[in-house]
């Protein structure tokens, strides 16, 4: 993405706090990262700028937000001189120059002598349609093939990683700055599109310098050079060059619409509140602490109970105990309590599940050991000696002492799709969990000679005997990223809608799986066409009660035709798995992470 050293940034998009920050401290931005065409890779020296998107088919709206990133008029890839914010005093500027010199002549030179693994090599991780794009203001009047179902009136939003600046060292796909893509569906078969960065504290600060200033937690924090990167960041923080007190997260993973707010999340920070404007544009309001009720990061996959309206979520801490906390907010956003969950190690808990009465928390084999960096390794470790288990916690437990831990050996579920309660023939309460079990467990973070597998599985846990069973529902097919009908979350479901993750990490189609029969109904995108997470939207008639057919609704997802270099959103009927509409998008949409749909009724109640 492009910052211009000769252009003033638009302040309309920032909150008053950020406006003040930019006006008084950093009036100029400097470009450093160049977006490449879809079929290219991203080498260490970025490629020339692509041509701009076609102009909107409708007249400019008076409230259209100007992009944070302005296009440079020249093709100079890297500024001749560092761009230091004007608010720095002389000592800070001298210190900044010295630290920059250490970074470029020592750390980066040593990094060049190390061959980067594919999992953190920018030339691999941000190549092709994983490469970032520029912000796109609202484009109206998009071409629609077919008919948009009448029940789909609202905005589909999808999050993803979109690094603004060229990485100076290693880069993992999860490290990129958060960008939200929005497709608005209106009356008369009309659709519009926009995409915007989420203005995180980290991004705003790096924009002042025109380059990366914060370490990338997965791509750079490995071994001794990772410690050097960490030390460099701490030195800059101590000198007041950067400020981590307002969070260092990228808000690139999950999205949830709760209590009138769209929240963008990554598990390294608090959520960010993003407003959807009347023109279907996106505006970052700011970091959201639930009205001063929390001060810690939250995971990217909170659970919204369709019956109570409560939001359930977790926080994990990689440095100190308590390593895990559970939070619940009622439908009005009021936090009920902080509950510490006792676990022995700092563990990566990316997702969890809820039932009608319980919270189901995985405690698996991916753990954090910062001491591994001293020994030259990664702080994210696959602990083969640890037995995977699930904690089953009563939602009304006020202290956490009643949690039941049940071992589920050889199980690593990065995502859980649903869970519910059953009663066995002997009267025992059974917790059923549906998730995709990933092998090897560290596939996302480390290279492996073993073939990647992500198999849809059923886990059954007996709360009386504390015994578990596990079975693969669909074998021979990698199924990742998706969900059930949200109206049935926490209740027994028959269907789950998932991405066909093949060839990994691309997704060649979507699958509807019948959990009773194991039958798989596929919708394939076609040759050279790939997508991501499918999102199920129940038919409007089914949202008031759960007595209708569970699969009455529509599945939507973003698709890229890599041969024709065209992006679109497809809409598929849930019951038949047949396409009913496709919306041609005006610019390239990279592969990303998770999304949600916000109806017109919900938008009317949006907190402004």
From TrEMBL:
Its cofactor is Fe(2+). One of its GO terms (molecular function) is carotenoid dioxygenase activity. The keyword Cytoplasm does not apply. Fe cation binds at residues 301, 350, 415, 594. GO terms for biological process: carotene catabolic process. Binds 1 Fe(2+) ion per subunit. Keywords: Dioxygenase, Iron, Metal-binding, Oxidoreductase. Signal peptide: none annotated. Residues 40-63 are annotated as: Disordered. Residues 45-62 have a biased composition (Pro residues). One of its GO terms (cellular component) is chloroplast stroma. Belongs to the carotenoid oxygenase family. This is 9-cis-epoxycarotenoid dioxygenase NCED6, chloroplastic. It comes from Gossypium anomalum.
């Amino acid at each position: 993405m492009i910052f211009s050293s000769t252009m003033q940034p638009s302040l309309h998009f920032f909150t008053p706090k950020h406006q003040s920050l930019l006006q008084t401290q950093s009036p100029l931005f400097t470009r450093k990262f160049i977006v490449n065409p879809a079929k290219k890779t991203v080498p260490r020296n970025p490629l020339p700028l692509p041509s701009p998107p076609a102009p909107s088919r409708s007249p400019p709206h008076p409230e259209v937000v100007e992009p944070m990133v302005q296009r440079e008029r020249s093709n100079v890839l890297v500024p001749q001189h560092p761009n230091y914010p004007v608010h720095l005093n002389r000592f800070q500027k001298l210190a900044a120059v010295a630290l920059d010199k250490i970074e470029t002549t020592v750390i980066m030179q040593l990094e060049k002598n190390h061959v980067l693994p594919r999992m953190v090599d920018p030339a691999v991780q941000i190549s092709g349609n994983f490469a970032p794009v520029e912000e796109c203001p609202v484009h109206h009047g998009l071409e629609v093939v077919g008919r948009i179902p009448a029940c789909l009136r609202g905005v589909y939003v999808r999050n993803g990683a979109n690094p603004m600046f060229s990485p100076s060292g290693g880069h993992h796909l999860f490290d990129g700055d958060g960008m939200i893509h929005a497709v608005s569906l209106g009356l008369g078969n009309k659709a519009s599109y926009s995409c915007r960065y989420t203005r995180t504290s980290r991004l705003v600060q790096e924009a002042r310098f025109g380059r990366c200033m914060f370490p990338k937690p997965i791509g750079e924090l490995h071994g001794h050079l990772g410690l050097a990167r960490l030390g460099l960041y701490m030195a800059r923080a101590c000198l007041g060059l950067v400020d981590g007190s307002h969070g260092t997260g990228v808000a690139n993973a999950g999205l949830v619409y709760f209590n009138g707010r769209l929240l963008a999340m990554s598990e390294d920070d608090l959520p960010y509140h993003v407003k959807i404007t009347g023109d279907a544009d996106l505006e970052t309001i700011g970091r959201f602490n639930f009205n001063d009720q929390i001060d810690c990061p939250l995971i990217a996959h909170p659970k919204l109970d369709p019956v109570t309206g409560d939001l359930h979520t977790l926080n994990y801490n990689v440095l100190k105990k308590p390593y895990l906390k559970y939070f619940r907010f009622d439908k009005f956003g009021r936090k009920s309590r902080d509950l510490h969950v006792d676990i022995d190690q700092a563990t990566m808990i990316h997702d969890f599940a809820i039932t009608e009465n319980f919270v189901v928390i995985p405690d698996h084999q991916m753990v954090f050991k910062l001491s591994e960096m001293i020994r030259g390794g990664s702080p994210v470790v696959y602990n083969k000696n640890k037995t995977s288990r699930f904690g089953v916690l009563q939602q009304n437990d006020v202290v956490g002492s009643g949690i039941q831990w049940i071992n589920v050996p050889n199980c690593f579920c990065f995502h859980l799709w649903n869970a519910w309660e059953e009663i066995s023939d002997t009267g025992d309460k059974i917790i059923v969990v549906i998730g995709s079990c990933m092998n090897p467990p560290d596939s996302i973070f480390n290279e492996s000679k073993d073939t990647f597998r992500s198999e849809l599985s059923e886990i059954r846990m007996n709360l009386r005997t504390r015994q578990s069973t596990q079975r693969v529902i669909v074998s021979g097919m990698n199924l990742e990223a998706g969900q059930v009908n949200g109206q049935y979350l926490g209740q027994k479901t028959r269907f789950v809608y998932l991405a066909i993750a093949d060839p990994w990490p691309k997704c060649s189609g979507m699958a509807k799986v019948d959990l009773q029969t194991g039958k798989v109904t596929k919708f394939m995108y076609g040759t050279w066409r790939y997508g991501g997470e499918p999102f199920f939207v129940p038919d409007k008639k089914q949202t008031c009660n759960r007595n209708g057919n569970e699969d009455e609704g529509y599945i939507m997802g973003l698709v890229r035709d890599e041969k024709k270099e065209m992006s679109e959103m497809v809409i598929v009927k849930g019951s038949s798995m047949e396409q009913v509409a496709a919306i041609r998008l005006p610019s390239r949409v990279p592969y990303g992470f998770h999304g949600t749909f916000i109806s017109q009724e919900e938008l009317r109640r949006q907190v402004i």
